[in-house]
What we know:
Residues 4-97 form the HTH arsR-type domain. By secondary structure, the protein is mostly helical. The chain has a single domain (9-110), classed as Orthogonal Bundle (Arc Repressor Mutant, subunit A).
Amino acid sequence: xxxxxxxxxxxxxxxxxxxxxxxxxxxxxxxxxxxxxxxxxxxxxxxxxxxxxxxxxxxxxxxxxxxxxxxxxxxxxxxxxxxxxxxxxxxxxxxxxxxxxxxxxxxxxxxxxxxxxxx
Length: 119
């Protein structure tokens, strides 16, 4: 069984790298609920505005969020489609491992000796 995805290896790497950080996961959750400005996001964290901008840039490269300008503000919103595609990939991995676990279980059940303890 081969894991097949419409995501390239580079895209998968960027997505899971971006989601490996707790702050970035929190940013994704916030901007999936509602669009927020980068400065509004920055006020939610005990880090500099520049650090939040860097987190948003990582998420943007992974295409988990999109930015748009409204006057002087940069607004960030999440892209649920990219998360959906990542979830589908994880679902494929789960199917693969469940299939392998079932195969191991079948092999182990074939090798079990019958109970021959007659006393």
